[in-house]
Amino acid sequence: MHGSLEMLATFIFQMIILVDPVAGAPVLLAITPGNSRAERRSMALRGCLVACLVICFFILVGPWLLGYFGIQTEAVQICGGVLLFVIAMEMLYGRITGTEISPREERLAESKKDVSITPLAVPLLAGPGAIATALLFAGRASGPYDYLVLLLGTLVVFSVTLLFLWQAELLEHALGRLGMAVVTRVLGLILAFLAVQYAIDGIRGAMG
Q1: Most exposed: 14, 53, 90, 207, by fewest CB within 10 Å?
Q2: Quick count: other Cβ atoms within 10 Å of Cβ 154?
Q3: Which of 135, 100, 91 is closest to 118 using CA atoms?
Q4: What distance in Å separates the CA atoms of residue 77 and residue 83, rounded to the nearest whole number?
Q5: How far apart are CA 41 and CA 47, in angstroms?
Q6: What pLDDT was estimated at residue 29?
Q7: DSSP one-letter string for the chain
Q8: Start-to-end C-alpha separation, the chain
Q9: Concatenated DSSP letters for 187-205?
Q10: CA–CA separation, 189 vs 171, rounded Å?
């Protein structure tokens, strides 16, 4: 029981860093300049729902896919650690990562009537970093109860994200661009530590 609660807390914390609703709020405002607040909230709801389903899919089906292709847990840990470290470095330096929405995608999104699926759900919310984290934790699951814990954690993460997106205007006004940049950099530093630990665990496991 204690182990499952620890897994739940760790999973939620890491996924919140990767989904990054603080940074997602101003992006949502930027790609929906011609939409009303009600329309923006509706798109945020659909985007979070789709992103939640994507992550749940990889939690449930990911281990089977890895087993089918003969990919060991250690390989997922090392690769996931490297990928998360790259994302962390981009967050630390305040740059748009290649796993998230690019300036070009942002311009294209501005001309779309509905951005809930792309680019909001994928890749902004459920990007490769979030998917890799879902695979890492699914590989740790030892039974149905652990999978249920991860699914619950995913629901919590995207519920919190939805609240942030629904209050995007208020959040941007309260924190400002400088405040959001500071939060993103601090979370990037924590993510870098976690990424290195994943890689170390993977290397240690591969070497027996």
Answers
A1: 207
A2: 26
A3: 100
A4: 10
A5: 10
A6: 86
A7: -HHHHHHHHHHHHHHHHHH-HHHHHHHHHHH-TTS-HHHHHHHHHHHHHHHHHHHHHHHHHHHHHHHHTT--HHHHHHHHHHHHHHHHHHHHTTPPPTTS--HHHHHHHHT-S--IIIIIIIIIIS-HHHHHHHHHHHHH--SHHHHHHHHHHHHHHHHHHHHHHHTHHHHHHHHHHHHHHHHHHHHHHHHHHHHHHHHHHHHHHHT-
A8: 28
A9: HHHHHHHHHHHHHHHHHHH
A10: 22
Q: What is the mean pLDDT of residues 152-171?
A: 95
Domain limits at 155?
2-206
Domain count, the chain: 1
pLDDT value at position 109?
A: 52
Which pTM does this prediction carry? Answer: 0.85
State the Cα–Cα distance between residues 44 and 50, nearest whole angstrom. 10
User: Nearest-CA neighbor of 157 among 38, 14, 3?
Assistant: 14
* pLDDT tens digits for range 79-116: 989 988 988 888 888 765 545 555 665 555 555 567 88
Nearest to 190 by CA among 2, 15, 6, 4: 15
88 closest CA partner among 187, 10, 14, 156: 187
Question: What is the predicted pLDDT for the residue at 179?
Answer: 83
